[in-house]
Amino acid sequence: MTINIIMAAVIAVLYSVGFYLIMQRSLMRVVLGLVILGHGTNLFLQVAGGPSGAPAFVGSAAPADMADPLPQALALTAIVITFGTTTFLLALAYRSWVLRGHDQVQDDLEDRRIGNMVEDWGNEPDEPEGAGETASGPATRGGHS
Hints:
Largest sheet: 2 strands, antiparallel
Strand content: under 5%
Number of strands: 2
Structural class: mainly alpha
CATH class of the domain at 5-54 and 67-104: Mainly Alpha
Order of helices and strands: HHHHEE
Helix content: 55-70%
């Protein structure tokens, strides 16, 4: 069984575009990215299922000629999960639009603080000033003066 190179390229493009859109700050782009990822997953499952075959009914065809029903079941499950997640994210985006007037995700203050620490990490000296001192004077090792 070989995979069609065109289908592999289409799946790669769908996943790339989907992940790119999910990383954006606009909630509508995140929703569109999730939908595109869902389509890429469904296409991947159908391609992974192999060529079509006879219906999987016992006695209707030889077992070697029957189609594998598992990828079809997984694709239906992925469709339902994508639909449910999409409706939830659309509700969140609508609520954000009603409350704030836009759908842009704001920076978290803790994320910004950690980002600043990472940027400054290479610029700091090995031991900051006053690191070996306490309020009563220089600190000693072992805790005894």
